[in-house]
Specification:
With 368 residues, this protein is mostly helical. Helix content is 76%, strand content 0%.
Length: 368
């Protein structure tokens, strides 16, 4: 039964995000003339800007890998920058199949190629996610303050009127709501205290706190901060430069790009492959608020998301091939014949070393 349950869960993890994303895309593009998209891609789109945006997308992923090294080194976990960068490339591609699997994929690559404990590597990923979340919240806050009127229009057009919802509450309603929230919280706390999951949750939260405080041990906190800013700046440029590919978005400017970037970043929280569906809807809606025609906004989100997803796939394939040529940690450190061999991390691989290793393995197999 257990293998069947495992298979069912795996299928569900793959199928449900695809169904959700597909349903949103079907709803958005029902009755859409896809032949016109072909016309835009081949004849109306300026591909120069799209190509210029690619290095920034690649740089964002590479910087994430290089920043990871700064959190691994203080734990006594030496790792090669090439392995780290390629693990990130591969993790992004893996998340296209199963959303959120990327974090586990990159830790698995590190364990296999560098011999680093999976759980320790995963602990450092928590640090990164917390830092990224804090920076993202800061970006969202600043954007909300600068473009408050635009977001207000967005909420109205999507049927969300926060002031209307909150204004319908009387003081008694607020009091009852507060009591209910407190009661539910106390009940959940009591239940968790008597369940084994309480210890797991407590351990996880403690681990996250230790991960945050361990930033004090990072070799260069300014460098870590600079890389974090560089990651998000690269992501933004990777997206913003695509505005210049189309006549109907080239004039919109930085404010529109920042707002749609933030909204799109929030939308990808929904677990679909690369945010497909929620990202399209959110960015398209915001573009319309900035005066882009509905049909043109649909062109933009479909083409940009598809091309950037293909870049992720390409980098994932590249990483998979590249890693197959990189010496694993155990091969480098455990074999004396490879003492002069450097794979990706910076030594020179000698023919003599390879020959000796091959002859040694051949003799061992003959003796056995």
């Amino acid at each position: 039964m257990e293998p069947k349950k495992s298979i069912s869960r795996t299928i569900a993890k793959i199928a449900l995000p695809l169904i959700l994303g597909g349903a949103i895309l079907y709803w958005m593009y029902r009755g859409f003339d896809f032949e016109q998209v072909r016309q835009v891609v081949l004849h109306e789109m300026d591909w120069t800007w799209m190509l210029v945006s690619f290095p920034f997308g690649i740089l964002a992923m590479a910087l994430r890998g290089w920043r990871w090294k700064l959190t691994l080194d203080p734990l006594g976990l030496p790792s090669r920058k090439g392995v780290l960068a390629n693990s990130i490339f591969l993790s992004y591609a893996a998340s296209l199949v199963i959303p959120r699997i990327g974090e586990f994929t990159r830790c698995g690559v590190l364990k296999r190629w560098e011999g680093i404990s999976f759980t320790k590597a995963l602990g450092t990923v928590v640090i990164e996610r917390v830092v990224d979340m804090m920076l993202m919240l800061l970006i969202v806050g600043v954007t909300l303050l600068v473009e408050m009127s635009t977001f207000g229009t967005f909420f109205k057009q999507t049927g969300t009127n926060l002031s209307g919802i909150l204004g319908g509450f009387t003081w008694a309603g607020w009091l009852v709501t507060a009591i209910c929230v407190v009661a539910v919280g106390v009940l959940l706390f009591i239940l968790l205290r008597h369940l084994s999951i309480y210890d797991k949750v407590k351990t996880t939260l403690q681990g996250m706190w230790e991960g945050i405080t361990s930033l004090r041990n990072v070799r260069s906190l300014p460098l870590f901060t600079l890389m974090t800013v560089g990651i998000w700046l690269s992501y933004f440029l990777h997206y913003y430069l695509t505005f210049f590919c189309f006549d109907f978005t080239a004039h919109l400017g930085l404010s529109c790009a920042l707002v749609t970037f933030v909204v799109g970043s929030i939308a990808v929280i929904v677990p679909t492959p690369n945010g497909a569906g929620p990202w399209h809807f959110a960015v398209k809606t915001m573009l319309i608020l900035y005066g882009v025609a509905d049909e043109q906004a649909l062109y933009f989100v479909l083409i940009v998301h598809t091309v950037q997803t293909l870049l992720v796939v390409f980098m994932g394939v590249y990483a998979w091939v590249r890693l197959s040529f990189i010496q694993r940690h155990s091969q480098v450190t455990d074999s004396s014949d490879f003492s002069g061999v450097r794979g990706y991390g910076g030594t020179s691989m000698t023919i003599t070393g390879l020959k000796k290793n091959y002859e040694s393995k051949l003799n061992n197999s003959t003796n056995n």
